[in-house]
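Narrative of activities, Objective 1.

The group set out to show that a structural description can be obtained from nothing but a protein's sequence at a throughput compatible with the screening campaign. Below is one input-output pair from the validation batch, recorded exactly as produced.
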Amino acid sequence: MLTLHHLNFSRSTRVLWLLEELGLNYDLKTYERDEHFRAPAALANVHPLGKAPILVDDDLVLAESAAILRYLEQKYGDGRLVPAPGTPDRAIHDEWLDYVESSAALPVMLTLLGTMTGGLSQGLAGFTAPELRKTLSYIADGVRGRTYLLGDRLTLADIQMSYLLDALRKAGQLDEHPDILSYLGRLEATQGLRKAIEVGGPMSPPARS
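Output recorded for this entry:
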């Protein structure tokens, strides 16, 4: 039996989405953030990182969203959500999949932390703002005129992208990026993501007033 250890307002919604998209049976263990918006200590009893998502499949205990998405698709997905191996489309797909939590994540998370903590220092803000603009421009170019990142086909890369974009929208960072907002709307319209949010709650917390 697959077990997903899921933290509210976290990246683990991505894994919930994939589980629902593939129609897999799973057991859901839910955790709540503490008063400091941190993961509870109980998650460290499941995996040393103490974060979510954590997937358990028999003797395998796996963390990190991209690794979990790849594992589930390779074992249970039959190629439904990735292009064929060895093709240019697969290379581009994998670039997007890894981009989300590598190049894109740093300016996005710094921006979100600044929003949560009353603002970044002048020096850090001076670095982050142009990096975020470049990131959002790159994503907007990638989805403009397409349903999903690789055209009309939903892939793991789209599932991976969803969390950062939802958080940015709630922080007011997508107001000038209609192509990204439209793309995020299409992701939210998928049956898998709708079910994941129904089961596990919103991907990110409500915007602060």
